Structure formats: C-alpha cells, structure tokens
UniProtKB/TrEMBL annotation:
The organism's taxonomic lineage, starting at the top: Bacteria, Bacillati, Cyanobacteriota, Cyanophyceae, Nostocales
Pathway as given in its UniProt record: Amino-acid biosynthesis; L-methionine biosynthesis via salvage pathway; S-methyl-5-thio-alpha-D-ribose 1-phosphate from S-methyl-5'-thioadenosine (phosphorylase route): step 1/1
Residues covered by the Nucleoside phosphorylase domain: 6-247
Biological process, per Gene Ontology: L-methionine salvage from methylthioadenosine; purine ribonucleoside salvage
Function, in words: Catalyzes the reversible phosphorylation of S-methyl-5'-thioadenosine (MTA) to adenine and 5-methylthioribose-1-phosphate. Involved in the breakdown of MTA, a major by-product of polyamine biosynthesis. Responsible for the first step in the methionine salvage pathway after MTA has been generated from S-adenosylmethionine. Has broad substrate specificity with 6-aminopurine nucleosides as preferred substrates.
HAMAP family reported for this sequence: MTAP
Organism: Chlorogloeopsis fritschii PCC 6912
CDD domains documented for this protein: MTAP_SsMTAPII_like_MTIP
GO molecular-function term, one example from the UniProt record: S-methyl-5-thioadenosine phosphorylase activity
Gene expressing this chain: mtnP
Name of the protein in its database record: S-methyl-5'-thioadenosine phosphorylase
Residues annotated to bind phosphate: S12, R54, H55, S87, A88, T189
Length: 290
C-alpha cells in the first residue's frame, strides 16, 4: 500500500493540488466503507503526501453525507501522522475579512447528525478533546502562512470554529448567537474530522479560509454558494502555497504531538473483553495497545 506521512483534506473549492508530482490515484476500502473519493498520492517538497477531496472532486457529497470515518481511517491506512484540513468558512468577526486565513484552536459543536467516533460495538473509549487541534501542527501551519507574506491576507492565529449541520446556512439569530459566544468562524465539516483524527492518533489542524461574513453583517450580503466558491477560487492558489510551505516545514522537522498517543489513557474496556470482530475492525487504531 502506498504510504504518506502527511495528509491533506481539501474542502469547497480545493479539489486538487497542482504542485503534486509522481501522482498515483488509490481507491481505498476501509472497515467503514469508501472515502469521499480516491486518494491522490503525490510528492510535494520531496515528501509523499495523500490528498483527499472532502466532498469528492465533483462536489457530490453534502456535509451530512460525508463518510468521515472512512476518510480518516483511509489516511491512517496510508500511514498519515499529520493531517491538514483546508476549509471554507464564514467569518463571525469584523476583523476576519473574506480571503483572510484563520488557524482555529477551538470548536463548538452544532451538528446533529454526524457519527464522530470509531468506538462502540463492544469497546468504549473517551479521548481528551479540551484542545481539539494539535498545537504544534497548528504552529507550523501558522508560521508557514506568516512566512509567505501573502498580499491582502491577514493571519488570525487561534479562534473558535462553530461546526453547524447545514446544508442551509445559518439564520441571522443563529449567526448573532455564535457571535455573542465569541466564536470566530463557521463551517460544516471540521469537527467530526478532528474528533476522528484524535481517536486515530493523527495530529490535525485546520487552515480556515474566510469566504464571507455569513449573514450577520449589515454592510455585506448574506452568504451564498457563489460567494464562497468565487472567493475560495481566488484563494486556492494561496491555500496551495500555504500547504506546500507547511509540508516543507513538517518534513524537515516533524513536531511531536500529544495526538500521537491520544488513546493511551482513553480506552475503558479491557481489551480481552472486546469482541474479536471489533478488534479486527479497529485493528490499525488498536494495534499499539494490544
Ligand atoms: C460551499 S459553502 C458551504 C460548505 O463549504 C464548507 O466546506 P468545507 O469545510 O469542506 O470547505 C462548509 O463547511 C460547507 O460544507
Ligand atoms: N457562512 C458559512 N456558514 C457555514 N459554512 C460556510 N462555509 C463557508 N461559509 C460558510
């Protein structure tokens, strides 16, 4: 099986990475079904990476339809230890302008219909999630953004990403509620990924690309898909530069991550009491502990 230490999940508007060399497309089956699309393996800055279009290259999957478990498990099968998510988000703060980049460090869960754990079926585990983003990976990502000095793009390091169910965008009352909570950006995808990545002991960080002011801002039109995609297309070149620079820095100096041992104290069920079928299904995740 092709291997990569670094994974990239591209969201709305980022369906491929132009700079990848020696590209190989791999269809991966996991115990949780097929991922959103084939994984694109390629070399970036001399390092093998795995790229996945979160909603499929043809954008056929709603946020609520995403096979989150298969996506993260497939990354684990490829040997991924660091996962960078690029995502379109709405801004909930005046100072976060469309086209700005945010590296969030917190989430608020407003989803209703997502499976966000690999556990169950006879095995119980509770990962620590007080710091849902890997601080060291986020640091590398933020340093990479800062080093590029991208014109007209401000970096906001830290901030809270509200993850809503969708697919409809928020009402003004909801948007203002999230603002009153001090949240920074809003999207529909990153929280289940962050939880599953943590369970799979993969370090996870988000490159949030602001595309709109959601619907709260009286001087801006309410968010539309056109607005999101046209802004993200304007930003896609920048996003790829950031990812490339992040990969260069990561491959030179892969940082330690507490995510890499997240399960050490998380599993409650004695492993000899876990049904054999479950042990087999979660084999890749559990093997360190068996
Ligand atoms: C196309 S607008 C809404 C859509 O965009 C974001 O997707 P992603 O996080 O994959 O970039 C947002 O979460 C919604 O899924
Ligand atoms: N305003 C918004 N709400 C939810 N998801 C988004 N993705 C991009 N903009 C968004």
């Amino acid at each position: 099986m092709a291997e990569a230490q670094i994974g990239i999940i591209g969201g709305s508007g980022l369906y491929k990475m132009d700079a990848l060399k020696d590209v190989e497309e791999v269809q991966i089956q996991t115990p949780f079904g097929y991922p959103s699309d084939a994984l694109i393996m390629g070399t970036l800055e001399g390092t093998r990476v795995a790229f996945l279009a979160r909603h499929n290259r043809n954008h056929t999957l709603l946020p609520s339809e995403l096979p989150f478990r298969a996506n993260i498990y497939a990354m684990k099968q490829l040997g991924v230890e660091y996962l960078i998510s690029a995502s379109a988000v709405g801004s909930l703060k005046e100072e976060v302008k469309p086209l700005d980049m945010v590296v969030p460090d917190q989430f608020i869960d407003r989803t209703k219909n997502r499976v966000s754990t690999f556990f169950g079926e006879g095995i119980v585990a509770h990962i620590a999630f007080g710091d849902p983003i890997c601080r060291n990976l986020a640091g590398v990502l933020a340093d990479a953004i800062a080093s590029l000095n991208l014109p007209n793009v401000s970096l906001h390091q830290g901030g809270t990403y509200v993850c809503m169910e969708g697919p409809a965008f928020s009402t003004k009352a909801e948007s203002n509620l999230y603002r009153s909570w001090g949240a920074t950006v809003i999207g529909m995808t990153n929280l289940p990924e962050a939880k599953l990545a943590r369970e799979a002991e993969i370090a996870y960080a988000t490159l949030a690309l602001a595309t709109d002011y959601d619907c709260w801002h009286s001087d801006h039109d309410s968010v539309t898909v056109d607005m999101v995609v046209s802004n993200l297309q304007r930003n896609a070149v920048n996003a790829q530069k950031v990812i490339q620079e992040t990969v260069r820095r990561l491959s030179e100096n892969p940082p330690p991550s507490t995510a890499h041992s997240a399960l050490k104290y998380a599993i409650l069920t004695p492993l000899d009491k876990v049904p054999a079928a479950t042990k087999e299904k979660l084999g890749l995740i559990l093997k360190k502990y068996i």
